[in-house]
Amino acid sequence: MRAQSFLVGLLVPCLLMSTLPARAGMIGTAQLLAPAASEQRERVDAFLAREDVQRQFEALGVSPAEAATRVASLTQSELQELSSRIDSLPAGAGALELVLVFLLILIILELVGAIDIFPRM
Question: Whole-structure pTM over 0.70, yes or no?
């Protein structure tokens, strides 16, 4: 009897709450993409605020303020592409590997005899 009253006390509120009306509405694409766009913009802005990125801009002759202005004028698709590439393309990364690959290619071409960069004595 006690288990039955406990079960009734548990099920009655559940049944009452299940009869509450539910509302559903159409969500536009702009509403759906707005949080993603703001997150992407915040991610790009945080990337531009990094000290190493600002140093790289200055080394290339671009002021960080000008870069921020250009990023602010990006379209949604450009912003999405930039945001997705941030992790794979950090500022200045890959420069050492590029130089090493270039030197390796030069050495191979020299050994094959296609070029004569390193004269033999």
Answer: no
